[in-house]
Specification:
Elements lengths: L7 E4 L3 H11 L3 E4 L5 H6 L7 E4 L9 E4 L2 E5 L4 H5 L2 H6 L1 H8 L4 H6 L2 H7 L6 H7 L3 E6 L2 E6 H4 E3 L2 E2 L6 E8 L5 E9 L6 E11 L5 E9 L6 E2 L1 H7 L6 H8 L16 H21 L3
Helix pairs in contact: 10-11, 11-12
InterPro entries: CO_DH_flav_C, CO_DH_flav_C_dom_sf, Diverse_Substr_Oxidored, FAD-bd_PCMH, FAD-bd_PCMH-like_sf, FAD-bd_PCMH_sub1, FAD-bd_PCMH_sub2, Mopterin_DH_FAD-bd
GO molecular function: FAD binding; oxidoreductase activity
Keywords: FAD, Flavoprotein, Oxidoreductase
Length: 289
């Protein structure tokens, strides 16, 4: 089956109009942003919304701007815009690196950062980066706006803290401290480019080259995008020599609910999580100046 079930299409011109439509149609409605996740699911009839609320035409939700010590990114900002942003290259090269290896150019031209975090695909790339950078997700609903920490946003596979009548409108990131390096690497499915196992790492060192902060996130290997606290704890307070990094990376899958499918068994993903995390830590470390 490659034809979606019948649905009514509603192009919203404002956030308020989109929220009104969500309230009106309730569980029968789905939000369309870039569409590269929802449309394929609809074509396979894995999703059959009766009403499609298109927010892609809403003005003012596509931007990357600096506000004091914070970088704000509008929810409709595309991967291509992220990839080409000098501001993000300056402060968050991790995000630029990640955007550049998402799927293909057509997907990057349409896919949005807000859509990626709202979809919360465990094998998606950008949710892991948002989590590693300890971002904040600003959402808006009938009761107004609220801000949710990335650590509290992703609840499970395709499950978030977003209420059915809320929309992601912005993501916010604190500027990193000095002597911070970051990297994203993945073992990709060659057909879909989704992560079989991926890792986003952010490291901060002090003047003595001791790790004072570590953020290590695993994608693709488990039932949700999640932080590897065992690896983080094994890095913080240490000087990151080869032995320390290897030992820390060996704990990459300690807390994960590993998945097994045609792309890799649980044991394979466990081994690859250790390999990918070790490589990503080393890459992040090399980028600290």
């Amino acid at each position: 089956m490659s034809i979606p079930a019948a649905f009514d299409y509603h192009p919203a011109q404002t956030v308020d109009e989109a929220l009104s439509l969500l309230q009106q149609y309730g569980d029968d409605a789905k939000i369309l942003a870039g569409g590269h996740s929802l449309i394929p699911a609809m074509k396979l009839r894995l999703a059959q919304p009766e009403h499609l609320v298109d927010i892609g035409r809403i003005q003012g939700l596509s931007y990357i701007k600096e506000e004091q010590d914070t970088i704000a990114i509008g929810a409709l900002t595309t991967y291509t815009q992220i990839e080409r942003s000098d501001l993000l290259q300056q402060y968050f090269p991790l995000m630029v690196e990640c955007a550049s290896i998402i799927a293909d150019q057509q997907v990057r031209n349409r896919g949005t950062i807000g859509g990626s975090i709202a979809h919360a695909d465990p094998a998606g790339d950008m949710p892991g980066v948002i989590l590693a950078l300890k971002g904040e997700i600003v959402v808006q609903g009938p009761g107004g706006k609220r801000t949710i920490a990335a650590d509290d946003f992703i609840l499970g596979a395709f499950e978030t803290a977003l209420e059915p009548d809320e929309i992601v409108i912005e993501l916010r990131f604190a500027r990193p401290p000095a002597h911070t390096g970051s990297a994203y690497q993945k073992l990709a499915n060659q057909a879909s480019h989704y992560a079989i196992v991926g890792s986003a790492v952010v490291l901060t060192l002090d003047a003595n080259k001791t790790c004072t902060a570590a953020s290590v996130v695993i994608t693709g290997a488990s039932m949700k995008t999640e932080r590897s606290r065992a690896v983080e704890q094994a890095l913080i307070g240490k000087q990151l020599d080869t032995a320390t990094i290897t030992d820390a990376a060996s704990h990459a899958a300690d807390e994960l609910e590993l998945v097994s499918d045609i792309h890799g068994s649980e044991e394979y993903r466990k081994q690859m999580a250790s390999v990918i995390v070790r490589r990503t830590i080393n890459s992040a470390l090399e980028r600290i100046s």
